[in-house]
Write a structure and sequence with these properties.
The structure is a homodimer of 145-residue chains. Chain A has 145 residues and is of the alpha+beta class. The first copy, chain A, contains four helices and six strands. The radius of gyration of chain A is 15 Å and the shape is globular.
Chain lengths: 145, 145
């Protein structure tokens, strides 16, 4: 699934290619993205806050993409809101990770999408550099059939 | 100031160049950035949420940059948190605008920066397409001497 998700992102979201995003892990339990430092730097020689937010968004979006694919549900996924805490600066290559939420949350989401043709899902992601937590990210995604 | 800010962004934040960001207005009252649709699209042929957040962040960052320059204060500006509501999809070229906050807020910020060598500032920005509000953005920035 890693190569497929990476190809999809690079083809459909050109900014992911400009950022140098690669998919390290992509399964129903978690999505881990990696990005190099150089294309994502800012004036302070740390990673631009916009790149950090974008990476977390892509990780969450990827997890929903995988689940909808497994359930053979053809829905559009859009972000409706996000909240980010920048905990520590990132000064090198970095990773964004989105973990699968609790079973009950997924089941509610799947059921609503099936019944109503639309549903919302809250997801969290983190951005790490060399194992250190740098960004805490929360977002709500809407899936629409 | 427009050309200067644009050159600074493109040189120091390469993602702003990849996004095609240009500076339409840059003065102490407001910063307006413009970006073309094509490099910022997503899988749905609307603008990627990460690009929208990045544009709003750059507009706010630009406004602080201008003020610090006018006050001849050499401080680093970093984002510490952000909150975004995606109100409507963006399906073409778009603009991000950051307005100067109330005088009292700026005076508090300037005074703290002068006295303590660091200060925080809350800013808001909006993203528009053809005059329609699409994104509401709030963020806190820290300036450190």
């Amino acid at each position: 699934m890693e190569k497929e998700l990476e190809a999809y992102l690079h083809e459909h979201i050109p900014l992911s290619k400009a950022m140098g995003v690669s998919v390290e892990k992509a399964d129903p339990e978690q999505v881990i993205l990696w990005a190099p430092f150089a294309p994502n730097i800012n004036h302070k020689q740390t990673v631009f806050g916009g790149s950090l937010h974008a990476m977390a968004t892509l990780a969450c979006w990827g997890l929903v993409y995988i689940h909808l694919k497994l359930e053979e549900a053809s829905a559009q996924i859009v972000i409706t809101k996000s909240e980010v805490a920048y905990i520590a600066p990132v000064s090198g290559d970095f990773r964004a990770e989105c973990l699968r939420p609790a079973d009950a949350e997924w089941q509610r989401f799947s059921k609503m999408l099936h019944l109503k043709g639309k549903a919302r899902l809250n997801l969290t992601a983190t951005v790490h550099q060399a194992g250190h937590l740098c960004v805490d990210y929360r977002a709500t995604f809407a899936a629409i059939k």
